[in-house]
Every structure is written in C-alpha cells, then in structure tokens.
Design a protein that fits this description.
Elements: H1 2-15, H2 24-32, H3 34-48, H4 51-60, H5 64-67, H6 73-79, H7 87-114, H8 116-185, H9 187-196, H10 200-216, H11 221-247, H12 254-267, H13 270-301, H14 313-318, H15 322-354, H16 364-397, H17 406-427, H18 432-463, H19 492-495, H20 501-505, H21 519-522, H22 558-574, H23 583-600, H24 606-624, H25 629-651, H26 664-676, E1 678-679, E2 696-697, H27 716-743, H28 749-760, H29 767-778, H30 781-789, H31 804-826, H32 831-854, H33 861-878, H34 890-898, H35 904-913, H36 919-928, H37 934-951
Parallel strand pairs: 1-2
C-alpha cells in the first residue's frame, strides 16, 4: 500500500509540472495526437495480432474489470506492483495491458458496426417520441387552463358542500365512538351493580362485550388502560364466582346455581368449575366438622383461654365430654347431611339439564364437557361420602361409650345407622369403615351392658314375689316403648291390621323411619333426617286399673266366683261322699266364670315385663347394628335361658320324683343351660376365669315367697304365675321370631331355629314338674296308702260297699279343689294349668291305688273284686271334680287288677310287656296270685328281678 501511494503521488507530481518538463511533451502528445497514435497502433496491431491471439488476449482479461462500473483499474494495477520495482517488468505489463485495451476496443468497434441499423431505427423512434411529447405538453397546458376555469366556476361551490358533508359524517362517527368510549368507561359501575345482584352471567357478558369493543378502540390511550382494568375486573369476578360456588356446598339454590353454571359457561371454564366444586365440598366437610366440634369443645372448656384452634380434628374429638357427645354427634350429622344433600341436588340438576336436547348443546365440544362433568360428579359421590364417613368414624372412636345409658347409646346407633343408610342411598356404599367403628364400640358397650342386665335380672328374680302384674287384657309387647321401632316396619300387616289408623300413619315411611322415596327426595325441599320429631311419642299404658289396697286387676266375674265358691264349699261340707244334684251345673258355671277371667287377665310378673323390655332393647341394637346382631341374639337367648332355669330351680325341685315329669328334650335343655350359663358354687372362686366370664350365679328364691303353706297349696299362686309367665315369655319370643330372622345373617338362622325348637317350644313343658309338686303335696296320699294297708283283701264274699279309704281320697281331692278355687280368686289359674294339676293328682291317686294293691299280703278273687269296686267308685266321683275327659293311667290300675286272674304263661308275658310298674309292685302281684305254685312264683320273681336290673 505504501508503494501504491508513492506511485500515485509521483504521477500527480508529474502532472503538475511545467510544460518544459520532460514528461509534458509525451502527455500533450497523447491528447493532441491521440487519434493518430491510435490509428498507428491499430495498423500496427492489426498487422501483428491475429484473431486467435485476440481471442486469447480477450479471454485473459480478469473478470473484476467487468463486475462494477465504479471499478478503479489504475488502483488495481498499481496494487499489483511488487515492493521492489523492476522497470522491464513494468514495461512488459504495460505493453500487455495495451494489447488487452486494443483487443477490447476493437471488439467494441466491431459490435457498434454490427448494430448500426438498429441504432438508426431507434434514433428515428426517439425523434418521433420527442414530437409526441411536445404535442402532449400542448394538451396538458390546455387541460390545465380548463381545470382552472372549472375550479373557479364549479369546485369552489359544489365540492365545498360535499367536503363539509364528509367532514360532518366523520364527526358523527367520532361522536359515536366517543359515546361508546364513555359507555365503556362507565361499565365498571354497572358491573358492580350486577355483581351485587348476583347476576354473574350478565356481568360476565357485559365484561366480555366491553373487551371486544376495547379491541376495536385500542388505538386510543384511554381505551388501552380500560382494557387492562376490564381484565382485572374479569379476574375479580372469577374470584367472586369461586366464593359463590363454595356457598353452594352447604345451601343449594337452583336459581343461584343456574347463574353460576351460565357464568362459567360464558368464561369457557365449566370443567374447571367442576374441579373447583369438588375441592370446595372437601373443604366444606372438613370445615363444618372442625368448626362444630371446636364449638362444643370450647363450650365444655367454659372460660378457658386455651387455643383449641391449633388442635387437629381427632384431638378435638377426644375432648368432647360425655354430656355433649350425643348433641354434638347429632349436629355433626345434620351439618354433613346438608353438604351431601347439596351435592345430591347438584347431581340431580346436571342430570336434568345435561340430558335435555338442545341445538346449542349439539356440538362435540359441549358433549365432551357434559361427559366430563358427569364423570366428575360420579367420582365425587364416593369421594365425598368417604370424607363424611371418616369424620364421623374419627368422632365415634375418639370416646369411650361403655358408660352411656342404653337409651342414649341406642340414640347414637340410630343416628349413625341413619347416616349409613343415607350413605348407601348416596353412592351405594356399604360404609365398611363406619360399620366397623360402630361394631367396635357396640361390642365393647354391649358386653358390659349385657353383664349388667344379667346381674339386674338376677336381682329381679331374687326379689320377685311372683305376684301377678296387672296388665290390660289387650296387652301386647308392641305397646311397650322398647318395641316402638317395630311399629314402623313396612310389614305393617303382620303387626296391626292394614285398616288401623297406625297403619295409615306410617305409609309414607319405611323401616326405621326412612322415607319410602328415599332420604334425599323425602327431604328435598325442607327438613333434615336428623331433626328430632316434634310429634309426641305414643305413651305407654299397659297396666290395668286395680282395686284399692288389693293390687289385683278388676274383673267383672270376681263376685260371681265368690258366690260359686261359697256354695261349693257348703256342699263339700255337707256331703262327705262327693256329688250333689247341682254339682255339675255349678261346675259348669265355675268353668264359664273362670274362663272369662282367663280371657281377660294375662299372667306375667314384673320380672317378665322387665325381660320383655330387655328383649326390645336388644332388638333395637340388632336392628341398628347388623354386624353384632347375632351376638346380641345369643345374649337375648341367655336372658330367656336364665329366666327359665330360675323358674325351674325355684318351683320344681322340692320333691325327688319331679324329675320324672321332665321330657328328654326339656332335661337336655336344662342341662345345657346349667353347663353354659349357670356358675356352679365350685366355680365361684374363679369369677375372673375367661371360661366363666359369661356365667351367672344361680338365683335364690326370695324369702317373701311361701311355698310351705298347705292352705295356699304350697305357693300354687306363685307357681302358676311363674310357670304361666314363662309360657307367656316363650310365646312372645316366638312372636318375635320372624322379626329376629330379618336382623341376623342367613347363615345364623339355624341357631335361632334350633333355639326356638329346643328351648322356646319346650318351655310350656316346665308346667308339669312345677305343678306336680303341688299335686304331690296338696293331697295326703300317704294317709290313703296307710288306710289301704288296713283293708283285708282276702275276703270270701262279694262286697257291695266300697272301702273307706276311697272316701278319704275323694275328700282330699275335694279339699284340694276348694283350695284351688280359693287360689283362683287371687290368681286366675289357666285351664292348661288346672288340667295339668288334676292330671297329676289323678295320676298320683292311680299310683297310690297300684301301690296299695301291691302291698296286699293275701288276696282272694273276692278281694280283687273289691279292688275293682273301690276303683270304680273313685272314677265315678272324680269325674265331678275335674274337666278331664280321660283319666290318666286308668288302664294301669285296671290292668294291674286284671292281671291277678291271668294264668302263669299269660302272666309271664304280661310281666315282660309292662315295664311301667316297679319291681316291688310286680313282686307283690305275683305273691298274691293264688293259681301259681311255689316254683312258678319263684320263676316269675326271678324274671322281675332280672328285668329290673336291665332297666337300671
């Protein structure tokens, strides 16, 4: 670059020299004689360069010379000069460049010569164009002069008017825009008014329209600021919408919810709203439960300043006192019901509205939104119920309910059971967690409660006077408050006639008070299933009016019985041998009178009534808590077992042979009760033994009960009351049998069936051993037997008069009948009891006849005839004392008497087939038979002794 600058400066200095400088002549010659030099060079070059060489030279020219018009060839060549100058090389390069210039000039000259014709033609066209332009200039000048005249004559007047009109229209448009801008700026006030009116769809619609208008006027500065403000307002409205949506969780309103859905639809956030709604419901459940329990805890704490808000819900639940547990649970269920009911109403609303056909809702996007909403709502059902279930479960398990009273505990079970039924209706959930929490609390509670009930029953039995409890003739266990829940059963026809007022009263409700159409539809518009009923409960009125100072139920037949009894008494005093002409008529009158009393008076005791109440309470728990229903049923059966065993122990174990009156089934039942339920005296020291935890000591009969007075027939009134109350209790248990089956699982029904068949149905059989004691001690059979031993049976004459002992026996039976009537005045004796008493008396009398006949040392045929006469006299007279159609064991006595006439083979066969006689009686018979020799008699005696060994 330095060399180039030096050469350029040198050339410049050479150009500035004077004309006398050596270079000047050369330069001047170049300008003056340029044409001559060029011609000489051309001639020279034409002679020295051939066409092929020209082509090569032209080809050798560098491309940079043709790329740009601003290209400086001198500068380019000067930059190519090396740093060390070589004159020969410079001259050589100069000559080569001159050759290139020559070839190019020649080439250009040839091209010009070739296009000479076109050039001439184009020049001619240019000349014509110039003429046309001159003519156009003249026309333009004329047009301008005409336009100037038109402007003066027309435009200034007419077009001025048009311009003014155009300006006016623009101003009107501007005014319209200004009005729109003013309206948009005043929108904020209207939006607040709409929000205060809770017209969310209108507010959002107005806001969206303003946003669209703001886009149109966004070039105005004020509108750009307004757009930002509208966006903030829209976000603020979304927050208000969310707050309003949260209120729906506890207080659903159809109109309000429709506005919210329309608002979210305008925002295009229907799915987002559904997600938010589920979150709000979860929060509502938690907040409701926490706030309510917190309020009760603070109420229990009184003026304490403890900050309970920092505690967890489970910790607060443990702080609930026993007194406030039930009210808090009730309020908790009511609050959670409101949340669930609101959600159910939302589901119903969407089912009604989303299923309606609409042209607007026919798009795929809207259908997808509806599907999403339905799916979310379906999943939310179980989710919400799980939250509710968890809150109640935590609350229930946080407290120990074993110390609660039964009615209050039943109330708690009823509340939770109602909630479980609601949950099943809500989402078809079986509520396993809540069921398990109830089961744990109920098992713990019922174990202690049943133990207390058994001890209470023992106390009742030990203090029971076995007096008649005066209940109304139409008494039914359904009248007891404990069985009140059964009156609401759907199977109303089983309990009361369909035409009864009570039946129509409960037609709208189902079992346990549940509305037939369901909780949610039944309480759709108002009410709460956990509200206490304001209507008065049916008052229990089961006791009959009694006479003052007596305590016995009033009866219209009392005076009539007294008169009949006095007449019968006189006849028995005057007549030693039995019947009178009016005896049968009086007996018929007595039978009618006593039957009337039996129809009017039910026989049960206070203890029986208490056991029935316990049955009702146990069934309430079975109804409310199915998982432990079978355990409760077992405990319920233990109540009956203990009552039955107590009656047996008190009134049927005074004589040894009373055990003979027990059937095999009854004996097995009593043995089972003794082994499984009764704590033996030897086990009393092991009360803490787990094997004996369910056993109860045997009760002791109250000292107030007199079972030794012969005038009172050894406590016959008490025995009748005890036996018949047991039968009444068994009948009531059998009446409850179908209801009990509905409470227990199907797999456990076999136990109930077995208990009813083996225990309940055998309870009436306990009458026999109880009344046998009275029959055995109420008649002096030993006196009769002693008198029979004094009779001579070896007479040789046919006797026409019966023996004296028969009159004594009949007299004893007459006195027994009199005493029976006296007892009947105070305690009505049912026909079943009367029949059993007389059956035992006659059976024992027949056994006395057989025993007395067997003690005869000697007996003739005439003596046997006397035996028949005595027995026929007894049969004739005893028919007037009893209503029995058949005399029990009559054939035994007659067969024993007739066996005296049998020969040895027939007598041997008779002995083999009659095992109902004792060994002593059979030996006495064989000893008196006259037609036997000593060998035959000894043979029969050996046969009798062997048979007795086998029987043992």
């Amino acid at each position: 670059m330095d060399i180039t600058k030096k050469i350029k400066s040198f050339v410049a200095r050479q150009g500035s020299r004077s004309p006398c400088s050596p270079v000047e002549p050369v330069v001047s010659r170049n300008f003056v004689t340029e044409a001559a030099v060029v011609k000489e060079k051309d001639d020279y070059r034409e002679s020295t360069i051939n066409p092929q060489a020209e082509a090569e030279i032209l080809q050798s020219i560098e491309g940079v010379y043709f790329n740009d018009d601003t290209f400086d060839a001198c500068d380019y060549q000067l930059k190519k000069i090396p740093a060390e100058l070589d004159l020969n090389q410079i001259i050589k390069d100069k000559e080569y460049l001159q050759k290139q210039q020559y070839v190019v000039s020649k080439k250009v000259s040839d091209l010009i010569l070739q296009n000479q014709a076109a050039y001439t033609q184009e020049l001619h066209r240019v000349t014509e164009l110039q003429k046309n332009l001159e003519q156009a200039g003249v026309i333009c000048s004329q047009g301008r002069s005409h336009l100037a005249r038109a402007r003066k004559d027309f435009t200034t007047a007419s077009l001025g008017i048009l311009a003014s009109f155009r300006k006016r229209e623009r101003l009107l448009g501007l005014l319209k825009f200004l009005h729109s801008i003013k309206t948009m700026q005043e929108t904020d006030v209207r939006l607040r008014e709409l929000l205060e009116e809770e017209d969310y769809p209108g507010a959002i619609q107005l806001c969206l329209e303003c946003q669209k208008a703001a886009i149109q006027f966004r070039h105005y500065k004020c509108i750009s600021e307004l757009s930002s403000k509208l966006q903030d307002t829209l976000e603020m409205m979304e927050e208000k919408l969310d707050v309003a949506l949260s209120k729906v969780c506890t207080n659903f309103n159809t109109t309000h919810y429709e506005k919210l859905q329309a608002a979210y639809r305008l925002l295009g956030k229907t799915q987002t709203a559904m997600d938010q709604l589920l979150m709000h419901f979860a929060s509502a459940i938690h907040n409701k439960a926490f706030t309510l329990v917190l309020g009760y805890v603070e109420l229990c704490a009184g003026g304490s300043v403890t900050k309970f808000q920092k505690h967890h819900y489970s910790e607060l639940a443990k702080m609930i006192s026993v007194e406030t547990f039930t009210p808090c649970l009730k309020d908790l269920c009511k609050a959670l019901w409101e949340v669930m009911h609101s959600y159910w109403c939302i589901v119903e609303w969407h089912e009604d509205h989303d299923s309606q056909p609409s042209q607007v809702n026919s798009s795929t996007e809207v259908n997808l939104t509806h599907h999403y909403v339905r799916q979310k709502l379906e999943h939310g059902l179980l989710r919400i119920w799980q939250d509710v279930q968890q809150k109640v479960k935590t609350y229930i398990l946080a407290s120990d309910l074993s110390s609660f009273k039964f009615d209050e505990f039943i109330h708690i079970l009823d509340l939770v059971r109602r909630l479980i039924d609601i949950g099943e209706e809500f989402c078809n959930s079986k509520s396993e967690d809540l069921q398990e929490s109830l089961r744990k609390q109920s098992v713990n509670y019922f174990r202690n409660y049943h133990r207390g009930c058994m001890e209470e029953l023992r106390m009742f039995l030990e203090n029971e006077s076995w007096a008649l409890c005066p209940v109304r003739p139409n008494f039914s266990i359904l009248q007891l408050q404990e069985f009140r829940f059964l009156r609401h059963n759907q199977s109303r026809s089983v309990l009361t006639p369909p035409s009864s007022p009570a039946h129509s009263k409960t037609e709208s409700t189902s079992f346990s008070g549940r509305p037939r159409e369901g909780y949610f539809r039944g309480y759709r518009y108002q009410g709460n299933p956990f509200e206490e009923k304001t209507e008065e409960e049916d008052k229990e009125d089961v006791l009959a009016p009694t006479e003052e100072g007596d305590g016995q139920p009033l009866s219209d037949t009392d005076s009539e019985d007294e008169d009949i009894a006095d007449e019968l008494k006189k006849e028995y005093v005057d007549e030693n041998t039995g019947d009178t002409p009016n005896n049968r008529q009086q007996r018929t009158t007595r039978k009618t009178s006593t039957s009337s009393r039996r129809r009017q008076i039910l026989i049960l005791t206070n203890t029986t009534l208490n056991v029935l109440r316990l049955f009702g309470k146990y069934m309430q728990m079975m109804n409310l808590l199915k998982p432990i229903a079978f355990d409760v049923l077992i405990c319920m059966s233990q109540l009956f077992d203990y009552y039955m065993f107590s009656v047996y122990t008190f009134f049927s174990r005074e004589i040894d042979f009373s055990e003979n009156a027990l059937s095999n089934k009854l004996r097995t039942t009593l043995k089972r009760i003794r082994e499984n339920l009764i704590l033996a005296e030897s086990e009393s020291d092991f009360g803490t033994d787990m094997r004996n935890k369910d056993k109860v000591p045997a009760p002791v009969l109250s000292t107030m009960v007199d079972l030794k007075s012969i005038e009172q027939l050894y406590g016959l009134a008490e025995r009748v009351t005890a036996a018949e109350s047991l039968v009444f209790l068994a009948n009531q248990f059998e009446f409850l049998h179908p209801h009990l089956e509905t409470f227990i699982p199907s797999s456990k029904k076999a136990f109930l069936q077995q208990f009813c068949s083996q225990t309940i149905l055998t309870a009436p059989e306990l009458r026999r051993p109880i009344y046998m004691t009275v029959a055995a001690r109420g008649v002096d059979y030993n006196q009769v037997l002693m008198l029979m031993n004094c009779v001579k049976w070896d007479v040789h004459d046919i006797m026409s008069q019966h023996s004296y002992y028969v009159d004594i026996l009949l007299r004893e039976l007459q006195v027994f009948s009199m005493r029976l009537l006296e007892v009947n005045k105070k305690t009505p004796i049912p026909k079943e009891a009367s029949d059993i008493l007389w059956e035992h008396c006659i059976r024992l009398a027949n056994r006395t006849f057989i025993e007395g006949f067997s003690q005869a040392k000697k007996c003739t045929n005439e003596g046997r005839a006397l035996m028949q006469l005595d027995y026929q006299q007894f049969l004739t007279k005893v028919e007037g004392l009893t209503d029995l159609r058949l005399v029990p064991e009559r054939e035994l006595v007659e067969g024993y008497i007739k066996a005296f006439y049998l020969l040895e083979p027939a007598l041997e066969q008779w002995i083999r087939s009659h095992r109902e006689y004792t060994q002593k009686q059979l030996i006495g018979l064989v000893s008196c038979v006259t037609q036997l020799n000593k060998k035959g008699r000894q043979k029969l005696i050996s046969l009798i002794e062997e048979g007795d060994k086998i029987r043992r």
